[in-house]
Structure formats: structure tokens, C-alpha cells
## 1
Amino acid sequence: MPKTWFITGTSRGFGREWALAALERGDRVAATARDTADLAPLVSRHGDAVLPLRLDVTDRSAVTAAADRAVEHFGSLDVVVNNAGYGLFGMAEEATEAQARAQLETNFFGALWVVGAVLPHLRARGHGRILNVSSVGGVFALPGLGLYHASKFALEGLTESLAAEVAGFGIKVTLVEPAGYATDWSGSSAAHTAPLAAYDGVRATMRRAAPVRQDPAATRRAILTLADADEPPLRFFLGSGPLDLMRTVYPARIAEWERWDAVSTGTAAGPAVAGAATDGGRSHG
């Protein structure tokens, strides 16, 4: 049976590729974008199988209205893809409050609002898939992308809890963690802080370590397979490279915890804790 998808950020990149993948196999797509003019090629090619929706995911009431409109139009939802997002490039010290909040509003809160809007519909049917697009940058962090990493680390934590919360309703949730792809994430969609000269050396190192950019069109089959899987994973790397990287990152983390384990466990029974300072019977801690 054809599936009905709700995909945010379908004007370009992964959102556009995955919408095309679904439509070309006969599925239906509620496609959202800030400017529905960007969705005209999808509508022209696939007609009534596409419902174009103007949406800014940071507007919670608009998100709820878009989800309700999609269900009203198609009758149901099967696969929900939280794809809308962008990268904020710059050092933590350089970010303005407005830049920091905007990054979290789109990448984290936008996904949260979509989840809240679609769950009543998915619960009512007793099944559904939610694909939250994180990043390999939701598993480890690099300099110069601290706010972006913060938004994806937050999404990872939310999604792991969400998956446990909704499993009993027949709803499966997956974190999609792409490697480096030739999307517009680091192009015109990106935001940049005003650089401080103190970090020029760090920026030079970042440029030398630029990742390989893979073709986003090559992800179409993988995302369809993931959406169709009877038992999808909680976490799903997309593209080549992340697993090899994690084989280095995770052992290094465990080794560090082990090096400090004696100190960690020693403080649990140490005199500073056992004889914690008190003030009138009230302990401080």
C-alpha cells in the first residue's frame, strides 16, 4: 500500500531527494518549505500526490495546522521526517544570543513541534514512523560548530526518550545520522558568526579537515528501506565514514572514563562527601 509522508524542508537537499524517492514509487507527500514556490517542480511532476505546505517549523501553531491539513487532505500519515535545519558556523564565544537561539529554535524545537503535532494522528491509527534527521555531528563534536552540535545532541536525547515513550502505540522512531553530503547545509542555508581573530588558527585547522561531500541522491534507497523496515533501528548512520569514525571515538571515551574511574568512584565515599558541610542541619550539594 502507498504510504503518506510528511517531510519538512523539502525545497532542497535530503528533503527534496526523499520526497522524490517516495513519490517516484507511488507514495504521497505533504511537502513543507518556507516558500512553496520551491515546491513547484514536485507538484508539476507528481500532481495530486504532492500537498505543498508553506511552513516555518519555529512557528508551533503553524506546524500543528500543517500536520492537521496533511491528514485532512490525505486521510492519514505514515512516515514523518523532521529534516528542516541549518548549520551555524562559528566558535561558541562568537555566537550572538539571537544566533544561538535561532539555531536551537529550528534544529531542535522545530522537530519537537512537529513530533507534538503528528503524534495524536499516529496514535489514533496505532502505527507510524518518525525519522528525526540528526547528524554524525549529533554523536561527536568538532570545533567551530558548537551550537549546531548542541542542537543535534539535544535532538538525539529527545529522540531516544521519545522512542521509548511511543513504542507501545506502534510508533517507531529513528535518528538518521548523515555523514558529509553535498547539500545546502553549509551553503546558502548556513549562518556564520562574526569571526574573532583569536580563533584564526582553529579555523585554518577546520578548513584542512573538511569532510568528503557525498551525493544526497544516493540516499534515496536507504531512506525508503528504513521507512519500510518492520524493526527499524533507533540510530542509523547514512553514508560512508561514520562507523569507522565511531570505532575510534567510542573506545577513546571509554578509555578516558576508565583512566579517571579511581577518582570518580573514590569521591563517592570520600571524606568531603561523607562529612558534607551543613548549615543548621541543611546539607549543601
## 2
Amino acid sequence: MTNAEGWVPDVLGGGYEQLTLPMTPEDPDEPGEIVATFVRHRPRRRLFRRPALHDVDVLYVHGWSDYFFQRRLGTFFTDRGANFYALDLRRYGRSLRDGQLPGYVRDLRTYDEEIAAALAHMGRRDGRRLVLVGHSTGGLVLSLWAARNPGIAHSIILNSPWLEFQFGRLGRAAIAPALELGARLRPREPIVPTIDLGFYWRAQQESADAADPTEPNPHWRPSEAPPPTMGWLDAVLDGHREVAKGLDLTAPVCVMLSTRSAMPNKWTDELAAADTVLAVDEVAKAALNLGTSVTIERIPGALHDVFLSRPEARREAYGRLDRWTRAYL
């Protein structure tokens, strides 16, 4: 059932709804419509007392080869009285259309359009606080957006944000010239061999919580992410360079990371207790360039998405998030 504003029930159920947002095509010859998908959680509210986050709007943005499906994270905020929203960016998840190149953009600033549309549909009023929550590449996107739009976000929560290349600043500098040339000449060409061997997906499956089952759509969140394109990776490395220069964010930032990375070429049980996507120590160092108030929370045994880790690490992650939100929100 569609209401007058265009909202329809979302695939997550349980009070989640979605709204399709038309976006401006970068290439008029691309198949399918270019859209983003705006998701909101509308649980039944308890009216016995005024909740702590009654004046907070939360906006979540996912990472590469991903989409929003973390119901428990949404509930964490709505249980405390916040309004929770999430974006599936163009060519990701709910927004991916047949024939489109998954996740492709040539400039991360392209996402300014969907963020602006999301903020407009929130119907935000004076006195409400905006909290940005970003995972992986979404953490990079939101950090850069907040730096270009100072004074809008009250605070920022980053879940394993991709703030630096896996081989550090020197590795980034080494590949940048060839990548920039390739991005100019063949921006849509995939970079092979693939960097995803399916370990992160398997780690999520082995860490699944029976009390809150998550069954990601395999078309939207494949077990092995598609190879990134030259144009997309060049855009990401441009973002890394901006972070390295310093973003001068004045809003308080919470960066949540696993205590260790693991990037082997075969599966071991240890991979279910480590970040198999990013070099977390490099990210932790880069996070210090975000702004003047940065908290770095290292979670033992956490996965790349700290909120999808095994029970002990997941409880620790939510405990740290609760402590930080009590202090800053």
C-alpha cells in the first residue's frame, strides 16, 4: 500500500518504509532510472516519558556493495526516541536497476544530491539535531559531505569508515598516477583480479544472531563484491587525499573499528573475529585528521561491520555506542 507521499512498506518489515527518490542521471544513455531509496523506521512510540533522543534525526549511509539491512541499529536509535532514516545510494541495493553498473560514480560529491533530498524529506525543524552514521565507504562519503557543509550535522558516528587506502598513504601515492590515467580513459573498466574472496560475507554468516536474523538480498549484497571500476576507485582515493589534508570537522566524531585486520588468501576461523576489508590501523591514524573532537573505539573481535560481529563483540560495540551517545547526545 502506498500513502499520499509515496511511502511503501519496506522489505525489512517491522515498521520500516521506503520512498524512491529520482536522481539526476550522469549519463543520459545509461539503462534504467537513476534513483536513491530513502528508508525510515516508524515504530510504535512509548508515551510514558520523554525519550532522551526525542530531538534527534539519524541518517545512515552504507558502504561498497552493500545496502541498509541492519534493523537492530535502527532500533537502537528509535528505542531512544530518535527518528531513524537510511539511504540506499544510486546503483546500490534497493536503488539498483537492471543493466546498471553496481555502485558506479565518478565523484563522491555526486551523492550530495541524495543527501540533500533525504534531508528535505525528513521535514527537519529548528532545534532538531542531525546525527550522521556511515559504514565503510559511506563513512567517507558522510565525512566529506559534513566538511563541505559545516554546521549542519550535530555529530557523526562512523562504523569502520574507509578513510585510507589499505596500503596506507605511500601505497595510495604509488598507484594514484596510473589510476588517474585509467579513470580518465576507461572509467567504467573493472579492476581485476577482484579484491573480495567472500571471506567477509562468510564471517557475517558465521556471526549471525538467531534473535535478530539478517538475510541480505544476494543481488544487493553478493557474497563476493563485484570488482571496483577505475573511475570509482579514483573517486575514493580523491576522498582519501582530502581526509589526509584534514577535514576540520567541528562536530564530535565517534570512529568504531575492530582491533585487528586480516587479509589472507584462504579461510580460517580467525577471520570471523577481524576486519577482512580494511587496514584498521591505517584507518585509526587517518581518523585523527577528521576534526578537533574524535573518539576512536577499538572493538576486540569485531568484523568490518562492527554491529554484525559475533555476540560478545556486538554487545561491546553497542555498549560503546550507548556510552558515546549518552555523552554527546
## 3
Amino acid sequence: MDTTNSPINPAPVRRGGFFALTPLLVFLGCYLVVSLLAGDFYKMPISVAFIAASVYAVAVMRRMPFAERIGHFSRGASDPNIMLMIWIFVLAGAFAESARSMGAVDATVALTLHLLPGSLLPAGLFLASCFVSFSIGTSVGTVVALVPVAAGLAGETGMNEAWLTAIVVGGAFFGDNLSFISDTTIAATRTQECDLRDKFRVNVRIVAPAALVTLGIYLVTGSVAHVPTDPEPVVWMRVVPYLLVLVTAVAGMNVMKVLLLGIVSSGVIGLATGSFSLMEWCGGMGRGITGMGELIIITLLAGGLLEMIRLNGGIDWIISVMTRRISGRRGAEGTIAGLVSLANLCTANNTIAILTVGPIARRIADRFGVSRRRSASLLDTFSCFTQGLLPYGAQMLMAAGLTGLSPLAIMRYLYYPVVLGVVTLLAILWHYPRRI
């Protein structure tokens, strides 16, 4: 059903222009510039930057009454995708605190230290993240499952927590981009009307070199890791919640059901082993949910802000400008990459960005001789590349919420999306792979 002009998703009220994107500049100015000037990414709360940008976005929308502007902002904040993210955040907070309280994180960290030597910990963590994300097809689910383990490893080994967290986030984008069951893969192939297997064959030839380069970086930098010579013994019973989460996620269970199963198993084992009482378990879940409060507020503000940008014609203007002058196949491929990247910047959701520009990308591909599996690969890859560089993306916010770190503190160590972007740009310039 076409909902382009429905009350839920109304058409833009104006043709847009660069002015429609200025709320994003206000956000970036408040958050990035202030943090850089202060020399500390913790000085400027991201929620305050979003409030400033949101107030500005509502104020400059002058073609409708104030109450109507607030209504549109609220509808953006309550978008079904936004609300689904919030429910996942709530359950993730409850599971993370339950698992920590009953000793699941410590037991999983001890198991990891027994299995891997110190120099292989970063590379092993990256490979585990790639495998889990490819298996379950969701980067957010991978972050939920593995970031607490990364944080525990950092505390046990003395390695940089932001670095280990970034390793997990980078590996999470590998599967988000490549998995057959990823929503971005499905969106890209549906909009380009091509087969999943054909898109995978093109995609893997671009993604694999980027993953291998990143793995090499972690193998080299991991040589400085220090692992205790006598790690704590593994309490296998306490590893069960994480094993259940990983196994059920890999089996394809919905992420919310996975988290509920993790919460219940953590509670049952914690009560059986005397790790906490029933009231202590409830109190721990409450603290975990409360700890996600800022993350939930940021997500709501981001949804409302990006809806105002769309309603003001910002995304339509980007598409119009980017498609105005295209020449040759390289230009067409670069335009497809630029379109989905800018749409992702304005939506903070790589699936929505692909769905937004996908039909236009298909027409560009057909006109300039770009194969549809190639255009599907470019859409998916550049959306994941851009999503990995957004401090207000769901993956970064989730990782920050689980660790208490600033999104920018994690981003400075996020190698894989950057390497992926560079490799894909080179693939466009060199027509790689040439047989496609």
C-alpha cells in the first residue's frame, strides 16, 4: 500500500533546499564542535544537542500552526521503527543488568580468556561479531549480545573499553551488510528487483577485502594485549544465559523474544544459585531499564528531528540535486552511493534510507548500464558505511548505553566502516569486480 501522502507519512510541505538540512548542522555544531573545542566528548551531552536542533527544526517550519508542527514532530518520534527500537532498548537494559548481577558477564569473560591468548582477543572478538551478525542478520542484536562481553574483557585485561566496543560494532555491520536475512539486504534486493544470491556474489567481493584488512589491523594491534596468566575459573552454569541468547539469535528468533529468554534464564539461574533474591532481581532489572533512559530520549528526539527534515523537503532536495547531472557508469554508481549515504544521514536508519532512494537508484542503474545486483550492493554497502559513522545511529547509541561511553569515544576506534567505505569507493573507480 502506498502511504506516501497518508496522514501517518504526509508529503513534504515545501520543495525544500539546503535550508531544510540546517537542523542537522545545528546538531553537529552543538555536539561535535563544542566537544572538539572543549577537548572532551563528555562535556556536551548528546541529548542537549538534539534538543537544540529539535527546537530549531520546529521553529523554522513556519508554514503551519505551532500545534501542527509539534504534532508532526511527535509523529516522527512515535514512528513504528522508533518505538520498536525503544522496546529493544528497554529489554536490553533489563537483560544486561540481570546477566551482570548473576555473574553471566564475568563467567563469559573467563571462558573467553581461557580460549584465546591475549594477542588474538581483538581479532577473535571481531570474528565472533562478524559470525553472529551474519547469522542473525541484525547489527543491533549483535551489539546487545557482545558489547557487555567486550566491556568485561576490557575490565579484566586492562584494554581500552572503547576500542573493544568498537570492534564489536564494526563486526556487527559486516553481517548487517552481507547476511541473507538482514533487513538492509532484503530492502536493497527488493528495490532493485534482483536475486539475493546475485547481490551476495557482488557484495562479498567488496566486503571480504575490507574485513580482511580490518582483521589484520586487530591482529597487529592485539599484540600489546595483556591477559592474566591465571584467569578466573569458568562457572559454566552462569554462561548459559549468553549461550542461549547467541544460539536462539543464530537460529533466527526475533530479537525481542531472544532478550526475554535471556532475562528469564538469568533470573532463574541467579535465583537458583543464590546470586540475588527475587526483589534484588527486580531491582536490578529496574536499574537496567532506567539506565537506558537517556538513550530512549535521544532516540525519540532523533525521530522527531529527522521527520521535520523530511517534511521540510530535505530528502527530496538531496535526491533532486544528486540526480541532476550524471555522466557515465562511474558517475551513476557514485550518485547511487551518495544518495543513500545522504538519505541515511537524514534518517539514521539504513533500511529506511535504502527504501527511500531505492526506486530512483534502480532507474539510474538501468539508464547508465549498471547491473541491478551491483546497484543493490552499493545501496547496502554505503548505507552500512554511513550508519557506522553516525553518533546518533541505533547501533552506536546502544553500544554507548550498555557501556556508559560517549558515542564519539567509540567512533574514533571504529575501523571497519571506514575501511569498507574506502574499499567500495575504490571498487567504483576501478570497476571492481570487472565481470559484474
## 4
Amino acid sequence: MERDIIIRKRDAVATRATILAAAHQRFLRESYDSVGLRDIAGDAKVDVALISRYFGGKEGLFREVVADEEKPRIFFEPKSVAELPGFLAQLVVEDAGEDLQKRMEMFIIMLRSASSPKAGEIIREFVHRDVLDPLTELIGGEQGELRANMLLAILMGIGVLRTIMMVDGFTGDDDDVAECAERFRCLFAAALTC
């Protein structure tokens, strides 16, 4: 009697995505230092060696989790400092639904793991590369870095209100949204001029 051997076709893209999804959920619930690769491998139902193969280990995996693949260079969009206040205001008022949920989860992952020396280093690198450095370059001048930090502090405060504290009075009918956008534009413009 001949035995049939079933060979499953390996799908590296799907396996990688499954590992990333499992890691995202683990880092959302636990800090970087509390999460083990075996936990993630178990959640993804893969051999732990695949995590090292695809991501190089826990650091590489965490780096992939916190990277924003859909909008990786969003702060490179405004082409002049004059466009920046309006761009940031629209970013705040248009942040809703699925985008808000994704941003909320990413914010929680970063907050949970920021105290870890290794994860904190990755988070700082990400924030500088994708947020502070492009803002500083766009703003320019002697106080460009300070102003970029001020804008980020305002954005983070708004993010905490919306994502962690669930305070969101920035929605409504079109007139309310337009009013909010204008007030935020003025706030961001003031942060650039003081």
C-alpha cells in the first residue's frame, strides 16, 4: 500500500503576515520585555525559528510592528512650512475610524514598551526618522528642532485625549469639523511662531 504524502505549499508572505499580526497583538497587551518569541510563535502557530528567519529576532520583529507601512513618510507631505499648520489640522480632524484605531493601538504599543532600553531605542529612532527629522527640516531655522518638538507634543496630547482617554469632541457636521480644523490650524501656526 502506497502512502500519500501531502506537501503543503509554503507561503512566506502569509506566514510573515501571521507572525506580524500575532506580535502586534502580544505587544498591544504586554510590554516588550514581557513578550517572548515562543509566545508569538505559539500564537501564530509557527516554529519559533521562522521569526528569526523573517525578522532577525525580537528587535527586528518589534521594529516591523511599530513601522507604519501604510503612511511611512506622512510628515514629508507638506512641502513648505506655510502648509504645515493646515496639514496638521487636517490630520487631526480627519483622523477617524480605522485610522484612529490603528493609531491608538500603535500609541499603546509604544507607551507599553517605551521603558524598555531596547524598545525605547527603536521607538526613539522611529519618532526621529519619521516625525521629528522631517518636521525639523521643513521648519528650518535656528529653532526648528524646538518647534518640531512643540508640534509633536501638541499632537501627542491630542493623541492621548482621543486614544487613551476617549475624549473626542472634534467630530460633528461639516461646519463643526471646519471650525475645529481652523482652530487647530491656528494652534499649530502659533506653535511655529512663538
